[in-house]
Write a structure and sequence with these properties.
By secondary structure, this protein is α/β, with parallel strands linked by helices. Helices cover 65% and strands 10% of the residues. The longest helix is centred in the N-terminal third of the chain and has 50 residues.
């Protein structure tokens, strides 16, 4: 990242945040000014202290000077506290705002984005980079106001007391600035590499935790230990590299400062010994020089510190600037559902170059059940994902009651859908909270009614706290069948006119499947249902059965008509029967 790009990032951070915190920054800046001026005053008054006490011996003047110094230190102490608290509160609020903003933004991105990203790495980068915005502001404010103003004030004192000595000190500035600029450029590259290395470690650890049952079943511990060890070593090397680069400024600054101070001390001693020059002015100059050392050292490190912060901020903005692929069109209107009739017209779809659907056309009549069957890889689940617009077709149209869903708002479209996937997912929280995600305004009575329909009420009541029982991470405390029934309950409580079931009973045993199938039969009444089923026995009562193979529709009809002829459906039926018999 070049300097002009870094300046654009810094400018953007200030444009987005400065106005929001104008009064808090005004208070913090006032405190920083007090700190800077009180520090400069301490150096300035030193000449009067030395000359009045040790040369002129004016005791009454010394007491007044000492009181002024005490007041300056008190002011600096309270100002330091005020600026630290103010900047910390601003920084904490900025972190919270950007966390909320980034989270809201990624929820708007399409499923395609998440298919391209590994979730663990995304979360890791999110957590690591969000502090960059805060650091850019804090480093810039504290450096430009406190350190720079303190440095300038002390340099002014130095020039007023000893102009020629001050000029000699500044001869060391150009080579120091050149060396620090080279370090900051190298640090930007290292900071980005470090973020990526850290995200790999976090991602590998999260995957191991989530898949711990597979890890133990396949005795993968040693393999994963080796993999984690490699990633951790890489991250360690990246961190060490950053430390080496960023801390190189220390020896550089110390060498230059040592040469300057020792040379000045030698010159001052020479003047005092051989020319009897009073020491007050020199000691005031020396005090200012020594006090200027800390702000100068911090200012010298600003480019390297800012380089890492700007890199983190840039990576957050890369995420925030990512445009959702499926934004509502300018003419998008709310979906109006009457019969809930779904129609596919010559729909084709591909994941990248892998064509999955080829010219699909069919109609799912309102208030009826349409079943999609076929071998694995036929494109059944893809058909389901196009209805809520998880993806958009490459060609053709999907219509609901004659309205092209590409021209309706996604919010209104999805509010009229209930979806049960073949892999049930539960969120952290209680059973009641997970069911209520289906319809936030649902009452406890609505939730219990939906649970009874899904044959989930009985096992819920057997839990330690009933509906208020925490489910653990992704429902780890529940069986697969129980998780699926809660997923179905969540869909039923939504009370939507369209119900999408993607092999919703795949995780259930025979007994649970029969119970849930009865519940689904009740729930399907009055709704348009599109169901994918691996077991053909679950779709016998469907009004229409669509048989798919290799992304195409091979046959349509009901169970009776398709079973009578030598069709793909009939062959699938015989395979299903053979599997049951073998079971």
């Amino acid at each position: 990242m070049n300097d002009s790009k870094a300046l654009k990032i810094i400018r953007r951070v200030f444009e987005e945040n400065a106005r929001e915190y104008i009064w808090q920054y005004a208070f913090a800046i006032t405190c920083l000014v007090v700190i800077s001026l009180s520090t400069a005053f301490t150096a300035w008054i030193m000449k009067s202290v030395i000359n009045a006490a040790f040369i002129e011996r004016q005791s009454e003047l010394v007491w007044g000077i000492c009181l002024a110094i005490f007041i300056a230190f008190v002011l600096r102490g309270f100002a330091s506290y005020g600026q630290a608290v103010a900047l910390s509160r601003i920084g904490n609020n900025i972190t919270a705002r950007y966390q909320t903003r980034a989270y809201a933004h990624i929820l708007k991105l399409s499923l395609g984005f998440f298919h391209e990203q590994r979730s663990a790495r995304l979360v890791a980068q999110f957590n690591q980079n969000i502090s960059g915005i805060r650091e850019v502001l804090n480093i810039t404010i504290t450096s430009s106001i406190r350190d720079l103003l303190t440095f300038v004030s002390l340099i002014t004192v130095m020039f007023l007391q000893e102009p020629w000595l001050s000029l000699a000190v500044f001869l060391a500035a150009p080579p120091l600035a050149y060396g620090l600029r080279k370090l900051s450029r190298r640090l930007r590259v290292a900071a980005r590499e470090n973020v990526h290395a850290g995200s790999h470690v976090f991602g590998a650890m999260q995957e191991a935790v989530q898949g711990i049952a597979i890890v133990k079943a396949f005795t993968m511990e040693r393999q994963l230990e080796g993999r984690i060890g490699t990633l951790v070593s890489l991250a360690e090397r990246r961190n060490n590299k950053i430390v080496r680069i960023s801390e190189r400024s220390g020896p550089l600054i110390e060498i230059v400062a040592g040469l300057a101070v020792s040379g000045i001390m030698a010159y001052a001693a020479y003047r005092s010994i051989y020319h009897a020059v009073p020491p007050g002015g020199f000691l005031s100059f020396l005090t200012a020089l020594l006090l200027a050392y800390d702000p100068a050292r911090r200012l010298a490190k600003v480019p390297t510190q800012l380089a890492g912060a700007v890199t983190n901020a840039e990576m957050i903005y890369e995420l925030l600037d990512r445009i959702p692929h499926q934004r509502d069109l300018p003419d998008a209107k709310p979906l109006v559902v009457t019969d809930a009739r779904i129609e596919f017209r010559d729909v084709s779809f591909a994941y990248g170059n892998d064509e999955v659907l080829r010219g699909i056309s069919f109609t799912a009549e309102g208030s009826r059940t349409t079943a999609l069957v076929g071998p694995s890889g036929a494109g059944k689940s893809t058909v389901i994902t196009l209805i809520p617009r998880f993806f958009d077709p490459k060609q053709g149209q999907v219509l609901i009651d004659g309205q092209d869903i590409a021209h309706v708002t996604k919010q209104s479209l999805r509010e009229n859908l209930a979806y049960v996937s073949q892999q049930p997912y539960l969120f952290e929280g209680t059973i009641r909270e997970n069911i209520r995600y289906g319809r936030p305004q649902a009452t406890d009575e609505d939730i219990e009614k939906a649970a009874r329909l899904a044959y989930a009420h009985d096992f819920i009541m057997e839990q330690p706290q009933g509906y208020d029982t925490p489910v653990g991470e992704n429902g780890v405390t529940l069986s697969g069948g129980q998780r699926q029934r809660l997923s179905i309950t969540r869909a039923l409580v939504r009370n939507a006119p369209i119900l999408l079931l993607d092999e919703a009973t795949s995780a259930l045993d025979t007994e649970s499947e029969a119970a849930v199938q009865k519940a689904l039969d009740k729930a399907m009444v009055g709704r348009t249902v599109i169901v994918i089923a691996h077991r053909l026995s679950t779709v016998i009562r469907a009004s229409k059965i669509i048989v798919m193979q290799q992304g195409r529709i091979m046959e349509e009809g009901d169970h009776e008509s398709l079973s009578k002829k030598d069709s793909l459906y009939a062959r699938l039926g015989r395979l299903d029967a053979a599997e049951k018999a073998a079971g």
